Input
Amino acid sequence: MSAWLEQPKDLLANVGEGAKFSAKIMGQVYSLRVLRFLGEALRQAGVLITSSTVVIWGLVFIIGLQCGLEGAYFTRSIGSPAYAGVFAAWCDLRELVPYAFGYMMAAKVGTGIVAELGSMRISEEIDALEVMGFDSVLFLCATRLLASWLVLPFMYVAAIGAGFFASYLTVVEQVGDVSSGGYLLIFWMFQNPPDLLYSLIKAMSMATVIVLVGCYYGYNANGGPVGVGTATAKSMVVNLIMVHLIGMLGTQLFWGANPRAPIGG
Amino acid sequence: MASTVVNRVFDPAKGALEEVGDMMILAGKTIVSAVRPPYSYGDEFVHQFLFALRLCWFPLLVSTVAFGFGAPGLQAANFLVLFGALDRLGGFFVLASIREFAPFVTAVVLAGVAGTAITADLGARKIREELDALQVLGVDPVKSLVVPRFLALMIVTGLFDVYALIFGIFGGIVATLVNGAPLGPFWATFFGNASTTDLWGSFVKCTLFGAIIAVVCSYKGMTAKGGAEGVGRAVNQAVVIAFLGIFAFNYVFTQTLLATNPEMLVIK
Output
């Protein structure tokens, strides 16, 4: 009996620890104490831009191709290929670009943070920081969160652009059932600035959770070099579940009660 | 100056191409060694199969229900309700779930959960020099470690596709019920539009995703280097490459399937 209860108990304890740790980091960013290490935050922002942007845009581009493809064939099958833009607009902006962004953020940035902080923990660099009188959570985790908030909104909007471009390529250039003008008319008709904002909110919530999860698992890694690998793998499980849950909750919240479509009166 | 620019552009490209080539070689070696006797990898295969099963069932359940309810469920239901045609949601789920998201959500979860575990495990063995020790003992690491993981992950990913289908459609059912509609028309249009081609396409795609994940993650684990940071970095790179590989393959496969089987596009 007690063995059965052990697992949920551990899970709850871990969730609580993680939430406490995350709240601490968020507090440090919101109270602007993180600005003491603004240089480090800017350096992390630079690392994020140079090492992760292209990969994230690449995955979003491929997903955009996929959306366009399914949209073109689906609307062809219901006999209205001119309306491929509806499918592409909703599929790209509302659902799959945030998901693709979340997947690649988890894979590239989240596990990257765990690997980096974990190896710092194993080689006792974090303890060394503490001994030198640095607040290690502030220096390592809060700067990373601030860096991601500085960079990611812009990166995400550009990623949406990559997805739109890819859908255009498949629907108009590759499958070619609809003219360029006809596609773009419908495509832009079925989205508006609030949709973009909602999509951005969804993606930024995913990114924040991913950075916090990465910091938690990396900062608390233990058990030698093998431990870093295990912590990296574990962080990925949590990240994937969170990305999907945030995606679903975002859809329910922003579009659940109101389709936001220019149809009907 | 010009040569440094050229080097900056071409060296990473060359490195990436070499890595892809090495992965292809590993895939070839794995397949050859899987079919050539002796078949000594049975125990490890069962072990890996159960390991992936135990690790992935819960994340996959949450992911597929959430994805099925949110993306195709709510959004498509919203659209169809405007036309008073919510019964068509079942037909849409054939496209959304069977053809598209069941395989790729399965692959993403398997790569993120089982794939990372494989890389972490093999990477740890590599830097503790266990792989070298195996070779010294005359045991082939490809046959004893990679082949069982390759086969187990292929089969597990293929089978998990069924599981993802069931729970993805469950998400669609919830979306229908949330809109206060009866389920009969959902099932009627779902089974009316479902075709065997869709189903086998989904399975084949998902099984091949499993092969991609297994090869990439085993390769990255077996070539991990550089101590504590090395294993973590290997996991990081493995999951990035696996995701890119999965989605690029998904695009090519779906395009080929849709273009060569026009009969599955007919709405019934």
Notes: Chain B has a mean pLDDT of 90. Residues 24-259 of chain B form one domain.
